[in-house]
Design goal:
The structure holds 2 protein chains of 2 kinds. Helix content of chain A is about 70%, strand content about 0%. Chain B is mainly α. Chain B folds into 2 domains: about 60 residues; about 240 residues, MetI-like (MetI-like fold, Orthogonal Bundle), CATH 1.10.3720.10. Chain B is built from 13 helices and 2 strands. Chain B has a two-stranded antiparallel ribbon. The radius of gyration of chain B is 27 Å and the shape is flat. Classes of the chains: A mainly alpha, B mainly alpha. The interface between A and B is large, with 104 and 101 residues.
Chain lengths: ~270, ~325
C-alpha cells in the first residue's frame, strides 16, 4: 500500500492484544511450575523456585498414560476415517451423477446440525450399534467431516482431467486413481484433513462424557474434568495436567498452522 | 478383474460396432454410478447415523412419553407445555440468547484486530499466530485456565483489580449471580477471537487495495474509508463469522460445564447443559428431546436472520 501512517499505534495495540491472549497461559504455566500461590496472597508475578514436581505428580495422581492412550487411539481412528472416507466422497463428487444435487443439499444441511443438538438420539443409536464405551464408538461420529470433504474436492478439481483419463486408459481402477493419482497431488489437502480431524477429536469432550462408562475408556478431556472435580483448584498438578494436555494440540497447530487456517477458511468460504 | 478393466476404459476406444458401443456405454455409466455411490457410502452412513436420523428421532421423541425402560406412548404437546411452566428452561433459553448476543462484541474486537494485522507492518504473522493460538486449544483446558484467572483469592484478575484499587474486596466471579455469565462469555470470546479474526482477515484480503488508494487520493479520511469501503465489502464475512461463531458459542457446553457447571443456581445454565442434565443425569430423554427441538429452532432462526441481514446465501453459493 502507498498510504503512509505511523506504525507505533498499530504495534502497541497488537502487542496489547497478544499480551491479553498470552497472559492466561503464562499464569497457568507459572502455577504448574511453582504451585506456590494456591493459598498465598498476594500471588507472585514471577515463578519463584520453579520445579517439575507437579508434572511428575500427575503420573501418580491419575492414570495419565491410560487417558493418553485412549485419546491417541480415538484420534487416530478419526484421522484415518477422515482421510479415507472424505477422499472417497470428494472423488465421487468430482463426477457428475444423478442425485448429486441431492447429496450436496444433504451435506450442506448437515453442516447446520451441530453435534450438540443430536446427543440424545446419537447416544441411543450408538447403544443399538453396541458401540457404547468403545474406541470405535468414540471416534465414529467424527470419522467424516463435511468441511474436510470440500477441502479434498477443491484439491481434486484442480487435477487435470487428461491425467485421470490417461490413467483410466492405462487400466487403473477408480479406487487406485484416488490413491495413486489424486492423493499424491493433494498433499496439503491431506494435511488439512489430518490436522482438523486430530484437533477436533483430541479436544472433544461432550461425546466421551456421554458415552463412556468405565474409567478405563476415558479420554484426556474427561480425565481433566474429573481431576478438577476431585481436587478442586488446590493442587499445582491440575495445571501441570492442563499444560500436558494442551501441548500436543498446540505443537501440531504451530507446525501446521497454514494448513489448519486454510482448512478453516476454505470451510468458511465454501460453506 | 478383466471385466472391471474393460468397463473402466472409455468405450469409444474399444467399440467396434455402434450397437456394441452403445450397450457398453450404458453398462459403463451404470457401473460408474454404482461406484460413485459406493465411494459416498461411508460418509453418507456416518451423516445419516449422526446427523439426519438424530434430528428426525429427536422430533418424534419430543412428542412421546418414553424412557429406556418403558414403551413409547404418544404425548402430544405435553412436553412442550411442560416447558412453558419450567423456570429452568426459560432461564437457560435467556442465557443462551445472551451468549448469542455477545458474539457481535467479539466480532467487533476481532474486526479491529483484523484491520491491524492486515496492514503491512513488521511481524504481522507473529501477531496473527499469537492472537489465533487460543482457538485450537482444548476447551476443557481453556475453562480450567479461566477458572484460575477468575479465582476469588489468587486469580490474576482479582489481583490486578485489587492492586489498582478498583475493588475493595475480591469478586467471586464464578460464584456470583451477576458475574458468572459475563465471565463465561469473556472466556468464550477469548477463545473465539482469533477465529473471527482469521475469517475477517480472509474477507479483508479480497478487497482490492486500489479502492482505498483511490478514495485516499480523493481525500477520504481513514475512518471514512473504513465505513464506506471496508465495512460494506466485508458484510458477508462479518455475518459468516457471526453464524459460525454462534454455532460454536451456543454449543460451548465444555466451557460452561467445567467453569461453572451451570451454577451458581442456574445463573449460567444454557440450553445444551440443560439438555445434558435432563437427558443424562435425570434420564428424561423425552423432555430433553423437546428442549433440543427448541434449541434447534433457535439455531435455525438465528442463522436465517443473519443470512437475511447479510443479504443472501452466505457461503453456500460457492458450491456448485
Amino acid at each position: 500500500m502507498m498510504l503512509r501512517y505511523p506504525r507505533w499505534p498499530i504495534h502497541s495495540a497488537l502487542v496489547l492484544a497478544s499480551f491479553v491472549m498470552l497472559v492466561p497461559f503464562y499464569w497457568v504455566l507459572k502455577t504448574s511450575l511453582t504451585g506456590d500461590n494456591i493459598y498465598a496472597y498476594p500471588p507472585s508475578l514471577l515463578p519463584r523456585n520453579p520445579h517439575l514436581f507437579f508434572y511428575v505428580d500427575v503420573w501418580y495422581a491419575i492414570p495419565f498414560a491410560r487417558y493418553f492412550l485412549n485419546s491417541v487411539i480415538v484420534s487416530l481412528i478419526a484421522v484415518a476415517g477422515n482421510v479415507v472416507f472424505n477422499a472417497m466422497a470428494a472423488y465421487a463428487l468430482t463426477h457428475g451423477f444423478r442425485g448429486k444435487q441431492l447429496v450436496l443439499m444433504l451435506f450442506l444441511s448437515c453442516m447446520m446440525v451441530p453435534f450438540q443438538a443430536t446427543i440424545i438420539p446419537a447416544y441411543l443409536i450408538t447403544g443399538r450399534l453396541g458401540l457404547l464405551d468403545s474406541w470405535l464408538g468414540l471416534a465414529l461420529p467424527q470419522c467424516s467431516t463435511i468441511i474436510c470433504i470440500f477441502v479434498f474436492k477443491a484439491s481434486f478439481d484442480a487435477v487435470p482431467r487428461s491425467l485421470i483419463d490417461a490413467a483410466r486408459i492405462d487400466g487403473l481402477s477408480e479406487w487406485r486413481i484416488i490413491w495413486h493419482i489424486m492423493m499424491p497431488l493433494s498433499k496439503s489437502a491431506i494435511a488439512t484433513n489430518v490436522i482438523l480431524a486430530f484437533i477436533w477429536s483430541w479436544n472433544n469432550f461432550l461425546w466421551p462424557l456421554i458415552m463412556t462408562r468405565s474409567a478405563d475408556m476415558q479420554t484426556l478431556p474427561l480425565g481433566l474434568a474429573r481431576f478438577l472435580s476431585y481436587q478442586e483448584d488446590t493442587t499445582g498438578a491440575l495445571y501441570a495436567f492442563c499444560i500436558m494436555v494442551l501441548a500436543p494440540g498446540l505443537l501440531l497447530f504451530l507446525l501446521a498452522q497454514k494448513e489448519f487456517i486454510r482448512g478453516l477458511t476454505s470451510g468458511a468460504t465454501k460453506g | 478383474m478383466a471385466s472391471l478393466k474393460e468397463t473402466m476404459t472409455p468405450p469409444a476406444l474399444r467399440a467396434t460396432s455402434p450397437l456394441r458401443g452403445e450397450a457398453l456405454r450404458i453398462r459403463h455409466r451404470t457401473r460408474r454410478t454404482a461406484l460413485v455411490w459406493c465411494f459416498l457410502a461411508p460418509s453418507l452412513v456416518i451423516f445419516l447415523l449422526y446427523r439426519i436420523i438424530p434430528v428426525i428421532w429427536n422430533l418424534v421423541l419430543s412428542f412421546q412419553y418414553w424412557s429406556p425402560l418403558s414403551e413409547a406412548e404418544p404425548a402430544g404437546f405435553d412436553h412442550y407445555e411442560d416447558l412453558l411452566q419450567d423456570d429452568v428452561f426459560w432461564q437457560a433459553l435467556w442465557n443462551t440468547v445472551i451468549v448469542i448476543a455477545s458474539a457481535p462484541v467479539g466480532i467487533a474486537i476481532a474486526l479491529m484486530l483484523a484491520v491491524l494485522v492486515n496492514s503491512d507492518i513488521r511481524g504481522r504473522d507473529v501477531y496473527r499466530t499469537l492472537i489465533f493460538v487460543s482457538y485450537p486449544l482444548m476447551t476443557v483446558a481453556v475453562a480450567i485456565i479461566w477458572r484460575w484467572m477468575f479465582d476469588e483469592r489468587v486469580g490474576l484478575i482479582n489481583y490486578v483489580a485489587r492492586s489498582l484499587d478498583l475493588v475493595d474486596k475480591p469478586i467471586p466471579f464464578l460464584n456470583s449471580f451477576t458475574w458468572a455469565l459475563p465471565s463465561v462469555i469473556v472466556a468464550n470470546i477469548w477463545q473465539m477471537l482469533g477465529f473471527y479474526m482469521i475469517i475477517l482477515l480472509t474477507g479483508l484480503q479480497t478487497i482490492p487495495p486500489e479502492l482505498h488508494e483511490a478514495a485516499a487520493i480523493d481525500g477520504a479520511g481513514a475512518f471514512h474509508r473504513f465505513r464506506r469501503i471496508t465495512l460494506p465489502l466485508l458484510r458477508p464475512s462479518i455475518f459468516l463469522a457471526f453464524v459460525i461463531g454462534m454455532l460454536n458459542s451456543i454449543t460451548s457446553f465444555d466451557l460452561v460445564y467445567v467453569m461453572t457447571g451451570g451454577g451458581p443456581g442456574r445463573a449460567t445454565e444454557i440450553l445444551v447443559t440443560y439438555i445434558y442434565k435432563l437427558g443424562f443425569v435425570q434420564t428424561k430423554f423425552d423432555e430433553a428431546a423437546a428442549v433440543t427441538m427448541v434449541f434447534f429452532a433457535l439455531l435455525i432462526g438465528t442463522t436465517w436472520a443473519a443470512n437475511r441481514l447479510a443479504g443472501g446465501n452466505v457461503g453456500a453459493q460457492d458450491i456448485e
